Amino acid sequence: MLKYSIRRILGMIPMLLLISIVVFTLAKLMPGDSFSGEIDPTNTNPEYIKEMREKLGYNDPIHVQYFRWVSNFVQGDFGNSSRYKMPVSDLIGERIPNTIFLGFSSLLITYILAFIMGIYAGRKPYTIGDHLIGGLNYLGLAIPSFVAAVFAIYFFSFQLNIFPSNGSVDIMYSTGTLDYWLSRVHHVVLPAVVLGLLSTASYTQFLRNDIIENSRKDFVRTARAKGTRESKIYNVHILRNSIIPLVTFLGFDVVSVISGAIITETIFTYPGIGQLFIESVSTNDYPVLMTLTMMFSFLTLFGNLIADILYGVVDPRIRIE
């Protein structure tokens, strides 16, 4: 397991190098540059623009710009945000806690509901309860996240006035107080429920279908023939094999916790990484855009590694050499 993990981590290096080339090339192909966000829009002095571009190194050859960016990136220097006028590392550091809080809250809702409904539907297939859960799942799969978010804001924020429609905390509370944390929970509930409920649909169906499939296999028939209790058959023999597909999702969920729900955060004006990514695209804030893209790429590879390792933890039959 350790050798496999080290080999996979070393294999990430050339992959990340290729990704960095693609990210840098796409940034250069996009109209404008990060300098467009740093200057005053009312300042159209050609000499000033020319001087600043020379100072920032935008007139250097492409390969020189790339190696300068990569060397600074490896050293932890991600540049300065052209919109917020602050280091990118500090800007991302301010947003990550909100995204992690939202991500883990939505994952908690997803896995709790998926396990409850998936196990029930799998143990009692083709019943009224199973059909009801299936209908709700297909409804969840059919509704886009931005539509669900808009309706949630309309009903629960504007009509019922139960949850706030934007932000992550009320500014009137001091950081670290009980009221501050209660306010954070109050603000995260609605976007977390929207994310969690929509993700629950696919998770529930995967678990339900795997339970039904595993309940028909030979090892289950053998366990029943030996007089094993039905509860033990489901909890030990069937359920343990059925959660293996969910392990794949869990690995990639590590990525979603950090990358955040871009659309949902934007609609709820929730100050996380997802909203920051959209802002960086719309304002040509390329230092932030390239840093976030590289971070998402690394987390995707890392999530893949975690999923593969968890295979061996969940199912002893799977051996990673």
Structure description:
- With 321 residues, the protein is mostly helical.
- The protein has a domain at 90-282: MetI-like (MetI-like fold, Orthogonal Bundle).
- The protein has 14 helices and no strands.
- The longest helix is centred in the middle third of the chain and has 37 residues, at 178-214.
- The chain is globular.
- Belongs to the binding-protein-dependent transport system permease family.
- It is found in: Cell membrane.
- This is ABC transmembrane type-1 domain-containing protein.
Helices, by number, come to: 14
Task: Choose one word for the global shape.
Answer: globular
Strand content: under 5%
Main beta-sheet annotation: none
Radius of gyration: 24 Å
- What do we call the CATH homologous superfamily of the domain at 90-282? MetI-like
Q: Structural class, from helix and strand content?
A: mainly alpha
Q: The CATH topology of the domain at 90-282 is what?
A: MetI-like fold
CATH class of the domain at 90-282: Mainly Alpha
H/E topology pattern: HHHHHHHHHHHHHH
| Total beta-strand segments | 0
The residue ranges in which pLDDT falls below 50 over 5 or more consecutive positions are 37-41
InterPro entries: BPD_transp_1_N (IPR045621), MetI-like (IPR000515), MetI-like_sf (IPR035906)
Transmembrane segments: 9-27, 100-120, 132-156, 188-207, 243-268, 288-314
Domain ABC transmembrane type-1: 96-307
Keywords: Cell membrane, Membrane, Transmembrane, Transmembrane helix, Transport
